[in-house]
Write a structure and sequence with these properties.
Elements (H helix, E strand, L loop, with lengths): L5 E2 L1 H11 L6 E6 L1 H4 L1 E2 L2 H13 L4 E5 L17 H10 L15 H6 L6 E2 L7 E5 L2 H5 L13 H7 L3 E5 L10 H4 L9 E10 L2 E10 L6 H11 L4 E5 L2 E7 H15 L2
Helix pairs in contact: 1-3
Length: 263
């Protein structure tokens, strides 16, 4: 069997530059380490390459969501009532410095632990950020409507950020949720989430309000945006087919697309 090429941090930096990543840019990154290939240094080299590519005047942002802190019945459990009570009673609250990510991959799980990285306080949909505006991006992440214009997503939008799909599937584009809050049709329904929070010295279950976010059509949305605009830059980063997209243009397009295609 032919051995795959080895990929270094400098290889990744050069690939990012060829795609259009520049100093001072704000990137919200979705990534697949496996897709990039045999990276010497693994996720650490990828993270350092991203940070070097945008420089200290730029920002790197990654979703660090924590689905495992949801109520155990949220996604179907198979537990008995006694087991469900045991889980709910002993579920820890969110700790920004300690709680691991859920299904985010090796790169964001490593990134969130880096010195200098800030993490927003939302117990289910947190984001981690590094760079000049990291504190601004991650502060004041309210419980209700957690991916709206006041969330870290909205702040990346304000900063004129770019979406980088680094070997990640096109339906993993969290930024598109930002458009859902502005839809004028009835596709999105309200949802109440159970969440465990700290009140004084106690940890208690509470609730917050959100919309019922949906991502099943994000790949179709991406395909239409790619076909109808010249805003998507495509290239290889290591072995990973990757895409660099201006967030504002794509989110604004997504609003019209959702109003037309979601019923």
């Amino acid at each position: 069997m032919e051995r795959g090429k080895l990929i270094t941090k400098d290889h990744i930096i050069q690939d990012l530059k060829r795609m259009g990543v520049t100093k001072g840019m704000t990137l919200i990154v979705h990534s697949s380490l496996k897709s990039i290939g045999k990276v010497i240094g693994g996720p650490v080299s990828v993270i350092l390459a991203l940070e070097e590519a945008v420089g200290t005047d730029g920002n790197i942002v990654m979703p660090t969501q924590t689905e495992h802190l949801c109520d155990p019945t949220e996604f179907g459990s198979g537990y008995t009532e006694e087991e469900l009570k045991l889980i709910r009673d002993n579920m820890p609250t969110f700790h920004s410095d300690l709680t691991p990510t859920s299904y985010m991959g090796f790169i964001p799980e490593t990134f969130r632990k880096q010195d200098g990285v800030k993490r927003s306080p939302h117990p289910h949909t947190s984001f981690a950020a590094w760079g000049k505006d990291a504190a601004y991006v991650t502060q004041d992440h309210g419980l209700d409507h957690s991916l709206n214009a006041d969330s870290p997503l909205g702040k990346v939008y304000e900063l004129g950020g770019y979406i980088l799909l680094l070997g990640a599937p096109t339906d993993s584009n969290t930024s598109l949720h930002l458009a859902e809050y502005r839809q004028n049709n009835t596709f999105v329904k309200e949802k109440i989430w159970d969440v465990k929070v700290k009140e004084g010295m106690k940890e208690v279950w509470s609730t917050y309000r959100d919309i019922n976010n949906e991502s099943d059509d994000f790949d179709r949305l991406f395909e239409d945006f790619h076909r109808e605009t010249d805003d998507v830059k495509e290239g290889m980063v290591g072995d990973a087919r990757s895409y660099l997209i201006p967030m504002r243009q794509m989110v604004d397009y997504a609003l019209g697309w959702m109003n037309k295609n979601r019923k």
